Amino acid sequence: MTSSPSSQENVVILHVTDDPDDVARSAKAGAALREWDKSLEIKIVVHGAALAAVVDSDNPIDLAEGVAVQACEIGLQRRGLAEKQRLPGWKALSQQ
Fold first, then answer.
1. Cα-flanking dihedrals φ and ψ of residue 78, to 5°?
2. What are the extents of the domains in the chain?
3. Beta strands 67-72 and 41-46: pairing type?
4. CA dist 55 to 44, 64, 84, Å?
5. Residue 63 · residue 27 · CB < 8 Å
6. 66 touches 44 (CB < 8 A)
7. What is the per-residue pLDDT across 35-62, written as a single tens digit (0 to 9) for each?
8. Is the pTM of this model over 0.90?
9. Concatenated DSSP letters for 23-82?
10. How far is it, in rounded angstroms, from Cα 86 to Cα 96?
């Protein structure tokens, strides 16, 4: 009997907390992973001080196809960033 792979098996989560520049590095790493294996879905989860990258229009981050960024909604609120314009491709990750 063969089993079909779960969709979760193709998800890679990169976690960024401290340096906003780490978000760009994670986006590049995600793009490289996708180039290596197109079936991978890359999610970059951002919180902490790195959330500043969410609204930094001076340094927009290019996201490759299959790479998504999710920002902690609670962290955005606590840092006064929730009302600011987010860069394209960024989604808020709310507590569920």
1. -65, -30
2. 7-79
3. parallel
4. 16, 19, 7
5. yes
6. no
7. 999 999 999 999 899 998 887 767 778 8
8. no
9. HHHHHHHHHHHHHH-TT-EEEEEE-GGGGGGGS-TTS-----TTEEEEEEHHHHHHTT-T
10. 21
CA-angle at 67, arms to 21 and 72, nearest 5°: 60
- Reported as a single tens digit per residue, the pLDDT across 56-73 is 767 778 889 999 988 888
CB within 8 Å of 68: residues ≥ 6 apart? 41, 42, 43, 44, 89, 91
Q: Which amino acid is at 91?
A: K
| pLDDT (average), residues 30-35 | 96
